[in-house]
Task: inverse folding
C-alpha cells in the first residue's frame, strides 16, 4: 500500500510541476512531508521547501532521480554523500535528517536554511564589511576543520553552497563532490578533478594529485575574497585564461581591504600547497582574531534584554540595594530572570578591580590543559570571550560596575559550548573570586 502511495506521489509530482517555478502545493511525501515550494534545480533533481506533517517543522527535501544518477555513473557519489552527511554533526553544516526512496527517486530530508544562500547576501550588498565577513569566515573554517578531522574533504566550497539559517548563521551544504580518506591513493593524494572553475585550487588543475584539505582552504580563500571584495579574485569568460590566472595566482586586492586581511588572503591563495596556510595557523592569524565577533553581539544583546540597560557611569546604591545584592552572598544570579533558552548566566559581586579580574581570567585560562583562549572585549564595561582550541565560543565574561568599589562579574555560557565554559566558571574562576572577596573583606551576608 505504501509503495503504491509513493508511486502516486511521483506521478503527481511529474504532472503537477510543468515548469520549474510552479509550486507543488499539497503534495505529501510518504505521508510525512508536505511540499511547499521549489527552492532550486540541480543536475540530478530538485530541492523543495517542505514541512513535517507531524511537527510542522520546515525542512528541505532534495529529490534525486535514480535514472540520471545511474546513467551518469554517479551512484557512488550519492552513496558517499549520504554516508558523509550522516557522520557530520556541526552547528555550521546542514543536518541530514533522513533518506527516503522509491523506485525512481531518492529523497534527502535535510535542515532548512531559511536565510537562503550567502551568495544572495553578498549580491544584495555589493560586498560585506570585514567584521561581517569575519563572522561567516570563522564559521566556515570551524565547519571545515570538523570535516577534515573526520577525513572528509568538501571539494566544492563556494558562495552558492554556503547557506544561512533564520538567525543568519552559516551552513555548509552540498557534499555531492566530497571525498573521504578512503579515496586517497598510495601517494597520499586525491586525483579526481572536480570543483567549480573560479574556486578550484591550482594543484587540482595541475593533474598531479592534491591534498583535499589544502584544496578546501584555497576555496575558503576565494570565498573570503568574494565576501570582502564583492567579486571573485579569479574570473574570465575564457576558461583557459581563467585557469592560467589561477595557476599563476594572478589577482589584485581592492584598495579598501585592510593590511591584515590582505596578508591572510595571500596565505590562503598561495599557489604552493606546501606553504599555504593551515587551519591551525588560521586560528592564530591576526585578522581572524581581530575585530568584533557577531557571536559576541548576539550574547550581549541577549544579556541586555534579560538584565536591562547598564548605565555607562557609576551609580550609587542605597541600603536596600545592598541588602538585596548580598542576600544570597556574592551570587546575585537569582535577581535576574533569565531567558528560557539553553544559555546559562551566573553573576557575582567583586571588589577586585576590573583589570585584576581580567588578569586572573587569563591566568586561569593559561593553566587549562586544553588551552582556553581569552580575547578581551572593551564594550559593556569590559570582559572577554572564552574560546576552545577549535575556535568554538565557550562563554563570555562581562564586567559591569555597580559603584566605584564594586563590580558585577557575569559569566554566560551556551549549550553549544559544552561543559567547558561552565566548568571554567564553577571550578576555577568563581572560587577565586570568592577567595579574593574574603581577603578584601567584601561584605557578605552570614
Result:
Amino acid at each position: 500500500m505504501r509503495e503504491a502511495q509513493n508511486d502516486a506521489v511521483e506521478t503527481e509530482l511529474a504532472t503537477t510541476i510543468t515548469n520549474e517555478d510552479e509550486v507543488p502545493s499539497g503534495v505529501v511525501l510518504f505521508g510525512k512531508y508536505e511540499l511547499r515550494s521549489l527552492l532550486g534545480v540541480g543536475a540530478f533533481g530538485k530541492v523543495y521547501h517542505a514541512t513535517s506533517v507531524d511537527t510542522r517543522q520546515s525542512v528541505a527535501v532534495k529529490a534525486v532521480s535514480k535514472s540520471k544518477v545511474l546513467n551518469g555513473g554517479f551512484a557512488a557519489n550519492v552513496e558517499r554523500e549520504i554516508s558523509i552527511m550522516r557522520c557530520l554533526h556541526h552547528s555550521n553544516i546542514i543536518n541530514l535528517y533522513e533518506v527516503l526512496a522509491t523506485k525512481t527517486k531518492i529523497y534527502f530530508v535535510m535542515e532548512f536554511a531559511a536565510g537562503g544562500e550567502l551568495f544572495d547576501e553578498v549580491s544584495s550588498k555589493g560586498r560585506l564589511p570585514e567584521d561581517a565577513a569575519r563572522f561567516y569566515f570563522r564559521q566556515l573554517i570551524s565547519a571545515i576543520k570538523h570535516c577534515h578531522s573526520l577525513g572528509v574533504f568538501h571539494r566544492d566550497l563556494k558562495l552558492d553552497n554556503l547557506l544561512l539559517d533564520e538567525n543568519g548563521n552559516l551552513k555548509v551544504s552540498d557534499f555531492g563532490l566530497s571525498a573521504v580518506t578512503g579515496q586517497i591513493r598510495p601517494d597520499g593524494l586525491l586525483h579526481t578533478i572536480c570543483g567549480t572553475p573560479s574556486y578550484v585550487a591550482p594543484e587540482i588543475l595541475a593533474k598531479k594529485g592534491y591534498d583535499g584539505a589544502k584544496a578546501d582552504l584555497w576555496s575558503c580563500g576565494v570565498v573570503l575574497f568574494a565576501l570582502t571584495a564583492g567579486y571573485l579574485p579569479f574570473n574570465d569568460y575564457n576558461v583557459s585564461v581563467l585557469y592560467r590566472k589561477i595557476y599563476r595566482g594572478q589577482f589584485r586586492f581592492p584598495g579598501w581591504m585592510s593590511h591584515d586581511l590582505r596578508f591572510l588572503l595571500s596565505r590562503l591563495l598561495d599557489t604552493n600547497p606546501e606553504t599555504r596556510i593551515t587551519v591551525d595557523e588560521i586560528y592564530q592569524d591576526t585578522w581572524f582574531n581581530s575585530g568584533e565577533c557577531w557571536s559576541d553581539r548576539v550574547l550581549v544583546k541577549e544579556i541586555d534584554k534579560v538584565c536591562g540597560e547598564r548605565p555607562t557611569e557609576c551609580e550609587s546604591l542605597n541600603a536596600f540595594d545592598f541588602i538585596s545584592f548580598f542576600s544570597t552572598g556574592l551570587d546575585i544570579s537569582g535577581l535576574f530572570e533569565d531567558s528560557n533558552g539553553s544559555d546559562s548566566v551566573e553573576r557575582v559581586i567583586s571588589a577586585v578591580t576590573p583589570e585584576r579580574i581580567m588578569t586572573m581570567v587569563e591566568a586561569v585560562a593559561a593553566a587549562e590543559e586544553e588551552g582556553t583562549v581569552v580575547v578581551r572585549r572593551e564594550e559593556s564595561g569590559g570582559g572577554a570571550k572564552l574560546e576552545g582550541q577549535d575556535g568554538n565560543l565557550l562563554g563570555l565574561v562581562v564586567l559591569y560596575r555597580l559603584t566605584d568599589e564594586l563590580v558585577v562579574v557575569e559569566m554566560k555560557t551556551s549549550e553549544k559550548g559544552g561543559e567547558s565554559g561552565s566548568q571554567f566558571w564553577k571550578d576555577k574562576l568563581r572560587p577565586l573570586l570568592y577567595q579574593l572577596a574574603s581577603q578584601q573583606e567584601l561584605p557578605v551576608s552570614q
